[in-house]
Write a structure and sequence with these properties.
By secondary structure, the protein is of the alpha+beta class. It has a domain at 14-143: Jelly Rolls (Sandwich). The protein has helices spanning 14-26, 107-114, 116-143, 146-156, 158-161, 166-173, 177-187, and strands at residues 28-32, 37-39, 47-53, 56-62, 65-72, 77-78, 93-96, 100-106.
Length: 188
């Protein structure tokens, strides 16, 4: 969930253009099925990926209970950014929600290919986006109702959101599937 809502595929800024160019050289394209775990909690890796097609969910398990932290969509950079600052054990599980295509890459390879100075600037840029995302998510979870959060998610990703299973959307919003069905019925 490094960069949800950033959409590196749709941006034309220098960082996105340069990143996509480099990833074409060093990245590995993969197709995955729904339920495929791409990043597993507690596993040591420094791999990240760009979503070309499909939807992923980031899950944190607490006391045996899974909590959906966010969904990521085509163009988003996904992976656990904590591995950039701590020993490379994943803090989250990231799995495919739909049939998906991704480009997998390793931060060390990316740094070597881009050069340290450009890499550091790009990484700071993306980490700033990540911090903004987390701040927004915390504020929304405190200030908005589940219906308002649902409307916000649909507004940002209407086509993609329709592909997310009802149980996953309800879990993300912290409500029952029945409550989500009522919210959806009220929108019709």
């Amino acid at each position: 969930m490094l960069n949800p809502d950033f959409n590196v595929l749709g941006r034309k800024d220098g960082y996105a253009t340069q990143l996509l160019h480099v990833l074409q050289k060093i990245g590995e394209t993969k197709r995955v099925k729904p339920g495929t775990v791409v990043v597993d909690e507690g596993v040591s890796t420094d791999s990240f990926f760009v979503i070309i097609d499909g939807i992923f969910k980031t899950v944190k398990e607490i006391d045996g209970q899974p909590y959906i932290v966010c969904f990521t969509f085509p163009g988003d950079i996904d992976g656990d950014p904590l591995v950039l600052m701590t020993p490379p054990n994943q803090y989250y599980k990231i799995m495919a929600v739909t049939d998906s295509t991704l480009v997998l890459f390793n931060w060390n390879d990316l740094q070597r290919e881009m050069g340290e100075e450009v890499f550091d600037k790009m990484l700071n840029h993306y980490l700033l986006q990540y911090i903004r995302f987390l701040q927004t998510r915390v504020v929304e979870s405190l200030a908005l109702s589940a219906e308002e959060r649902y409307r916000s998610l649909v507004k940002q990703n209407a086509f993609q959101t329709s592909k997310i299973p009802l149980l996953d959307l309800a879990a993300y919003l912290g409500i029952t599937p029945q409550s989500l069905s009522r919210i959806r019925a009220n929108r019709a």
